[in-house]
Amino acid sequence: MRKILILLIGILPINLFAVYWITQYNGEVHDISFPDSLHGWAAMGGVGGGIFTNGRLMFTKDGGKSWTDTIIYPGKSKSLNTGLSLTRIAFVDSISGWAGGNWAAHVSNGTATGWLLLSTGDGFGTYGRQAEANSGSHYQSGGVGTMETVVDKLFWAYFEANLKSWDTYINGKAMPFATSIMSICFIDAYRGWVCCEKRLFGTTKGVDSLSLLYNFPMNDIDFIDSLHGWAVGDTGTILYTDNGGTDNVWDTLTSGVTNNLRCVKFIDSLNGWAGGERIIIRTRDGGQTWVTEYSADTTLKICAIDTNYVWALCPADYYNLAGSILRYHPYIGIEENSDFGRRSASGGNADLKIIKDKIFLSVPNNYYTNMEYPAQAVTLLTDIQLTIYDLCGRLKETLYSGTLTKGNYTFTPNIHKSGVYFVTLSTICHSERSEESNIIKQTQKLIILK
User: 148 and 129 in contact (C-beta within 8 Å)?
Assistant: First the structure.
C-alpha cells in the first residue's frame, strides 16, 4: 500500500491540468514586452477616431494582474495632447528598455507629424530621446515599425514617407524596400533575418550586410538558433527550415486552420505558438501538429518566456482603440491549502510556512491517534516528502524525502528562475498496528524573485 500511495503523489500534479487564456487588459494597447514572468510593459496612446491623446506606457510587476500608467510627453510641454502613439516597446530586463512610435499635433496650418525612439534605464522614471524626426507637416509621416532585443542590443525599424518617396531603415541603415510592416528576427548581434514585402533578407555580419535571399510571401518569422526557423502566412500557411533559410526549400507544415496567420513564436525546438485572424494555435512537437487554443481578434504579437508564461496581443486600431492583452494560464490540479485537517483531537500536524523564498517546516512528535483503538494510543512512524512543482505541474525539485524527528527545519529552494511555484508537503503515516498508511498533504504558493 505504501508504494502505491507514493506513486499517486508523483503522477497527480502532472495529469490534472487544463489550459486556457484570460484577458488581462482591454484598451488602446499597441505592443507588449515581458522580459521575465513578472515584469511587463505595454505601449499605448495615439490618435484614434480623430481624438488626440498623450502617449502612455503601462507597467506590471505581477505578471499582468495589475498595471500602472506612465504618461510620456514627446516635447518639453507636459500639458499638450500631442497624439503621441507609442506603437512599439522592447525591454531587456525589468528597468532597461526602449519605446518608439509616431506623433501628430494640431498646429496653426494643420497637423505636424514625426516619430521618435525613447530609451530608459530606470523603467521610464526618466527617459531620453535616442532618435527622432520632426517633419513639421501633415504631408509627411513616419513611425517606428518593429522592435526586437537580443541580450542588450536593440534592432528596430522605422519609416519615413512624404508625397514623393517612402524609405525604410533598420538601425539607421537604409533598406532596399519601403514598408512599415515587417518581421525582424536576430539570434545575436550579427546573425538575423528580415521578412517583408514578400521577400526574405538575411545576414551573418549585422544589419549593414543584409542581403536578399529569395521571394518569400510570409507574414512573420522566428528562429531559435542559426538553423531552425518557422514562418507563417495567409490561409494557415506554416513553413519550417533546418538550414537557416539558406535556400528557398522550406518544409510545409499542416496547421489545420485556414486563418491568415500574422505572428509566430517558438521558445525551443518543440514548443511554439502562432496567431492571426481570430485564432491562436499551439504546437508541442516542433510544428508537426497544431491545436487551436483560443479564438481571438487579430493577434499580432506573442510574447513567450517559457511554456508557462505566454502573452498574446490583439492590438488597438485607429478607429476604436480597442485592443487587449491575453495571458496563457495553465491551471493544474494543485490547490493552495493551509490546513491539513487533523486526524484526531490528539494528533499532531507538521506546520508548513513560506516567507519570501525560505521554507520553514515545524515537525511535532510522532503522529499518534486513538481513533481506531480507543483502549490504547497507537504510535505512527512518519515520512516527510517536500517537493516543488511549477505551474504546469512538473516536478522542479525535491527538497527532502525521509523521516524527520521533532524540530524546526529551514529549506532554501535551488531554483534560479523567477516565477510562481507550488510547495507540496506530503506526510506519510504508517501505523505499527496496521498495514494501512495515511497521507496528509498541504500545498502552498511560492513566489521566487531573482
Answer: no
In this structure, of 132-141, 150-159, 216-225, 270-279, the range with the lowest mean pLDDT score is 132-141
User: Measured between alpha carbons, how far is residue 406 from residues 311, 319, 349, 443 in Å?
Assistant: 45, 67, 11, 21
Per cent of the chain over pLDDT 70 is 73
Other Cβ atoms closer than 10 A to 217: 13
- We find that the CATH architecture of domain 18-332 is 7 Propeller (2.130)
Question: So where are the chain's domains?
Answer: 2-11+335-448, 18-332
The dihedral formed by the CA atoms of 208, 190, 196 and 135, expressed in degrees to the nearest 10:
-50
Count the Cβ atoms, other than its own, within 10 Å of residue 287: 22
Domain covering 2-11+335-448 assigned CATH 2.60.40.2550 in the classification: yes
Cα atoms in the Cβ-side hemisphere of radius 13 Å centred on 214? 7
Q: What is the pLDDT at residue 429?
A: 59
C-alpha cell at 3: 508504494
- Quick one: average pLDDT of 268-291? 92
